[in-house]
Specification:
The protein is an alpha+beta fold. The protein is 26% helix and 22% strand. The strands form 3 sheets. Strands 5, 6, 7, 8, 9, 10, 13, 14, 15 and 16 form a 10-stranded mixed sheet that branches. The N terminus is likely disordered.
């Protein structure tokens, strides 16, 4: 055994590793230490984080010290894991990908994803945003990372993180619901309520292999959407703003179809009723118009990324055909996040309820222990 392998090692968590799991840290920096080895170190108390026993699932913070036991000689003799090879993109692919960028700073990119381009690959899907990210490194060292997704036929603003730290920050913003996304849609018919909420749980539709969702009152996941009618054309169609307050698969499409007003062009959920006659395109009319999220750098001007994405050609033509004015939609105020809606707000609410219940139980015990007056 070499002298190096006999020595306990210590590593300081870097800026770009903020918030990742400890097992992921090992994958990045000590790939020769397999998950089984890391788990064994944790079980035997040899793995420490700032002096305390750690587990593979613990999240690490910038500046923390990871204590790693002596290297396993069997592991160190193993050939190093090959580094990921960047996708070989053509000049046309590189130019196309870079042409999608509508915002760029040190931590993030925002793309205006066109309809018909998937966010990630899958069975039979070879062209997707994830496959183009190697064209978007620019001056950064690492490959950009997807933060959220848009359906293949949905266009608009797509946030991309440029570092692991930024990805962790944005993921937290989405999970805690402090990030805001605004979608525009053209829908069939006119809702009875022009400004309302849709609270309908969503689950996978049986028999579709998870490819289609539906409203499932019994076992579905909670889903909530705010909608506002911006303009209308008689009783034929309406232009609506949609703000999802949860992030379920196909949420906006399922919700609008469920209230009887499917998104124009969405045959999957609206059937033949989802198409308008005349010159209106048969493509789906759902567009992520705006995204607003706190920036990971507190010194970033304004403290937030707030970007609008232009409409794709078919959507813009429909707006003209139906006589709608883009500026009317942008004039609507954005929903502000209530603290009670955030993950931290809900955590505190649950904690307060539990605290109140404990006090009540304690009071009941005291009452039972008191001596009755003679």
């Amino acid at each position: 055994m070499s002298k190096a392998s006999e020595t306990v090692r210590q590593f300081t968590v870097g800026f770009d590793d903020e918030g990742i799991r400890l097992d992921r840290w090992f994958q990045r920096h000590l790939p020769e230490a397999t998950f089984n080895v890391v788990s064994r170190w944790a079980r035997t108390g040899q793995l420490r984080l700032d002096g305390a026993r750690a587990t593979p699932g613990d999240r690490v913070l910038t500046g923390q010290v990871i204590r790693v036991p002596p290297a396993d000689p069997v592991q160190t003799e193993r050939a190093p894991r090959p580094k990921r090879v960047a996708n070989l993109l053509s000049l046309d692919q590189t130019s196309f990908a870079q042409g999608l960028v509508i915002h760029r700073d040190a931590a993030a990119l925002v793309l205006n994803k066109p309809p018909g381009l998937a966010t990630q690959g899958g069975t039979g899907t070879t062209e997707h945003v994830d496959g183009l990210l190697d064209a978007l490194t620019f001056e950064a060292e690492g490959r950009p990372k997807l933060v959220h997704r848009l359906d293949k036929d949905t266009s608009g603003a797509l946030l991309i993180a440029r570092s692991a730290r930024a990805a962790a920050h944005f993921a937290k913003a989405f999970s805690s619901r402090t990030a805001r996304k605004v979608y525009w849609a053209i829908i069939v018919g006119i809702p009875d309520v022009s400004d309302g909420w849709i609270d309908l749980p969503i689950g996978k539709q049986p028999g579709t292999g998870g490819e289609k969702m539906h409203v499932d009152e019994k076992e579905g996941s909670a889903a909530r959407t705010r909608y506002r009618v911006i303009d209308r054309v008689g009783n034929r169609a309406a232009w609506v703003e949609l703000q999802p307050h949860t992030g379920r698969t196909h949420q906006l499409r399922v919700h609008m179809a469920a209230i009887g007003h499917p998104i124009v062009g969405d045959g999957k959920y609206g059937g033949k009723e989802a198409f308008l006659t005349g010159t209106i395109s048969r493509k789906m009319h759902l567009h992520a118009r705006r995204i607003r999220v706190d920036h990971p750098d507190a010194n970033f001007p304004g403290g937030q990324i707030d970007v609008r994405a232009n409409l794709p050609e078919h959507f813009a033509m429909t707006m003209i055909d139906l006589g709608f004015t883009v500026a009317h939609g942008d004039a609507l105020p954005l929903d502000e996040v209530k603290f009670s809606e955030t993950a931290e707000g809900k955590r505190r609410l649950v904690a307060n309820i539990a605290k109140t219940a404990r006090k009540e139980r304690k009071g009941e015990r005291r009452s039972r222990g008191q001596t009755r007056p003679k």
